[in-house]
């Protein structure tokens, strides 16, 4: 297959679109923190998944009539993993900062090659081992308590979230290639919504929404973190390269930490900055195809 040639102006627009997605998703960590002042994590997820499903179903009602058994099966598996990941992340966010949560969640990029290795029995290569080692150092810097060297409860839950997201990515790659993406999204959000409503009714008190601010944050989580960025990401990735997109999306964790520090008064220590920097570098190393990049640079110099 011939290498795709990108128009520089269109690529710049695509890059800007992807960066906007990263910003919107980065702010979602702070939005989640704010909403959980008024309701439990399961109620938050119940509202988010329910309104996301209604939004997507309202825009594509014909897809509901064309659901197949395979759509329900694949969407159910993907949805179960999404539910586990989002529940662990949201509950964990009650016990850690937005920056730590965002950077630990982003570690799924480094975990994916090892999940694939377990499934295919093929080594992920030397680069994956180096990246994982750097990532572990970074996680140690931001999560381990200097007194008892234990990992915090929130960080532990968030690490489970990263593992669930990594497994979900591999499952999507293997099971969802021939399925309609929006149809699967409807199935997974519907499944997650039902599960969260049931769980919230059993384990959490009814939400106390006494401020319009929480309504605004919830609307942001549904629209600003679902409809707008998903559509924008698809359009933007038609204009720019996958390498550009994957690298720019890493900025989600940087935006999340920045918002937490500026608006939520979360602390920034030198050890936290070092740990996040190491994780950022490990993800960048995982995403970059160094061999192809080296060849491209040599061609440009020739």
From TrEMBL:
GO terms for cellular component: plasma membrane. The chain crosses the membrane at residues 12-30, 42-60, 72-95, 101-119, 126-144, 150-172, 184-203, 209-232, 244-264, 270-290. The keyword Transmembrane applies. It is found in: Cell membrane. Residues 13-142, 153-286 form the EamA domain. Signal peptide: none annotated. It comes from the Bacteria. It is a multi-pass membrane protein. Keywords: Cell membrane, Membrane, Transmembrane, Transmembrane helix. This is EamA domain-containing protein.
């Amino acid at each position: 297959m011939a290498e795709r040639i990108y128009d520089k102006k269109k690529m710049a627009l695509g890059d800007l679109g992807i960066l906007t997605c990263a910003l919107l998703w980065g702010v979602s960590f702070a939005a989640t923190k704010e909403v959980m002042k008024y309701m439990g994590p399961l109620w938050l997820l119940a509202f988010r998944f329910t309104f996301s499903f209604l939004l997507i179903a309202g825009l594509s009602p014909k897809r509901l009539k064309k659901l197949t058994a395979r759509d329900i099966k694949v969407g159910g598996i993907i949805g179960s993993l999404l539910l586990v990941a989002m529940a662990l992340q949201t509950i964990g966010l009650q016990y850690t900062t937005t920056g730590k949560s965002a950077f630990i969640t982003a570690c799924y990029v480094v975990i994916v090659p090892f999940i694939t290795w377990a499934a295919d029995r093929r080594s992920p290569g030397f680069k994956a081992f180096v990246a994982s080692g750097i990532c572990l150092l970074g996680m140690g810097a931001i999560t381990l308590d200097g007194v008892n060297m234990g990992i915090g409860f929130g960080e532990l839950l968030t690490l489970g979230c990263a593992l669930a997201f990594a497994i979900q990515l591999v499952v999507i790659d293997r099971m969802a290639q021939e399925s309609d993406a929006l149809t699967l999204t409807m199935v997974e959000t519907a499944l997650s919504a039902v599960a969260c409503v049931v769980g919230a009714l059993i384990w959490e008190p009814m939400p106390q929404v006494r401020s319009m601010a929480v309504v605004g944050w919830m609307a942001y989580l549904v629209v600003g973190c679902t409809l707008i960025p998903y559509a924008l990401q698809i359009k933007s990735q038609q204009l720019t390269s996958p390498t550009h997109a994957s690298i720019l999306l890493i900025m989600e964790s940087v935006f999340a930490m920045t918002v937490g520090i500026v608006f939520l008064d979360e602390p920034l220590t030198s050890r936290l900055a070092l740990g996040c920097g190491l994780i950022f570098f490990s993800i960048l190393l995982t995403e970059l195809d160094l061999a192809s990049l080296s060849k491209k640079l040599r061609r440009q110099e020739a």
